[in-house]
Design goal:
The chain is mainly α. It has a domain at about 35-89. Helix content is about 70%, strand content about 5%. It has 3 helices and 2 strands, in the order E-E-H-H-H. It has helices at about 15-30, 35-60, 65-89; strands at about 1-5, 5. A two-stranded antiparallel sheet has the order 1-2. A hairpin with a 2-residue loop joins strand 1 and strand 2. About 10% of the residues are buried. The chain binds magnesium ion. Magnesium ion binds next to helix 2 and helix 3.
Length: about 90
């Protein structure tokens, strides 16, 4: 089965490596993550808002795709941290 993360017979794509790198960096910078659902999701939504800002900047203000990519990876990393927290409960 082929997915965005690679397929069963090959190693993960660089895409998955980027996500893991963003996740590890986030955990180093902020080892603790909120346990209550509102605060944990709020952090993810904040990152999604930053991605939206970068998208707006690309359209209207000469923004960069690299910056958008970074904020999308932050959003994914915080979504994974949310999943980690709810799985711990
Ligand atoms: Mg960010």
């Amino acid at each position: 089965m082929i997915t965005k993360f690679g397929n069963e017979s090959t190693k993960p794509t660089p895409f998955a490596t980027e996500i893991l790198k963003a996740l590890n960096e986030a955990k180093q910078i902020h080892p603790e993550y909120p346990k209550d659902p509102v605060h944990m999701v709020a952090i993810m939504v904040e990152e999604a808002g930053e991605a939206m800002q970068e998208a707006n900047d690309i359209l209207w203000d000469h923004g960069s795709v690299d910056n958008l990519r970074t904020e999308l990876l932050h959003t994914i990393a915080t979504a994974i941290r949310c999943l980690d927290q709810i799985d711990e409960e």
